[in-house]
Design a protein that fits this description.
Layout (H helix, E strand, L loop, with lengths): L23 H26 L9 H8 L3 H8 L2 H9 L2 H7 L7 H16 L14 H20 L7 H20 L4 H5 L2 H16 L4
Amino acid sequence: MNTMASRPGTDPPASTGAAASVPAGTAASARRDADATRAAILRAARHFLARQPHTDVTLKAVAERAGVSPPLILKYFGSKDALFARVMSFETDAEALLDAPLERLGPHMVRYVLEGQRRRGADPLVRIVFAPLHGDHGAVLRENFRAQVTTRLAGRLPGPDAGLRAELAVAALVGLGAMYGIARGAHLRACDTDTVVERYGPLVQAQLTPSS
């Protein structure tokens, strides 16, 4: 099994004893800070993944961009390979991307892609565009994309040509993300999310539930 597909390092177990007396509000604040730190590290790693081969990216560079120390990255993710295994996985994004009833899934996916760019600063799918940069690791990225996104979506589609329809629907979403985040289309970026969902959602939905 390719090590890049392995499960990333888990957080250290919660402390016992004196730590158990920490007020609930303090613990919740610490958890939010930890979640924010992990998110910043992932955003930084995604930034480099889109610009240079995985093998050329250093933990120091990721740490500097995220505003943390390299040891903190190791604390949260275990290793550089574990960090990039997380970045190269689409599992978490796919769960959220596909989390809607089939009859409303197209507009939901369009909204999720746009809100990922606008609110979270990370597109759920467009990093597949950069797979050719990464040699053998690019093959892992493509394999994850097929298994976790297109094949998973195809499994939800009734009727003929489910695999093709799933790929066409996802292609529309990747194109939307590329136009927004890479080409930085001025008209798209100036348009409000609801309008884009209204116009683009039916295009995606037509592949998911085609009219008879």
